[in-house]
Amino acid sequence: MSNELFQYISIHDHQDRIDDLIELLNTQWNRSESSRRVMIEKSSEDLPYYLLMLDKSNDNKLIASCSMSKVIDCADDITTITNQKSESILIENVLVKKEYRRKGYGKLILNELERIAISKGYKTFYLSTLDQKEFYLSNGYQLCEPLAASKFTSSFINEEGLDKRSSLMRIFGGAGNQKKDSETVYWLSKNV
């Protein structure tokens, strides 16, 4: 597949595409437009970072999207003390528009996001999925422990097994106020 057929853009450099991104994300994970807009407008070079893939042969139609955020773990405590940054990111919202699926676009946008992350100094990528485990395994990811179950975030799970974190923290490994065994969530990671 030729790079001449599509282009990658960051949403923070192309805010005129926010409505397109909201529409795409809501086809898979429905949320209010205002909630989506608040998160998307936080996109920046410093993360979170939303990446879009456009079809140049079809009026720059949105093909796919994905995002990355910094992983908050013990590395943040180290950051405060030693001024080092975390080397881990959480990849989210990897989504290809239905009519473009099964054509290799998911792999392409994931590879581009990984390339951008590596250029920013990130070395470990985490993600979770309900139904795309095989796709990520075929792209070099390995099953791993959930971030929410790590010793750095387990204090957020109460005695009933419910996630008691704020909605901001839920993006780092939980579905908030849902039983943890309600669906099988696969966590995967990749070291580069």
From TrEMBL:
It comes from the Eukaryota. This is N-acetyltransferase domain-containing protein. GO terms for cellular component: cytoplasm. Residues 9-163 form the N-acetyltransferase domain. One of its GO terms (molecular function) is N-acetyltransferase activity. Transmembrane segments: none annotated. It holds the Pfam family Acetyltransf_1.
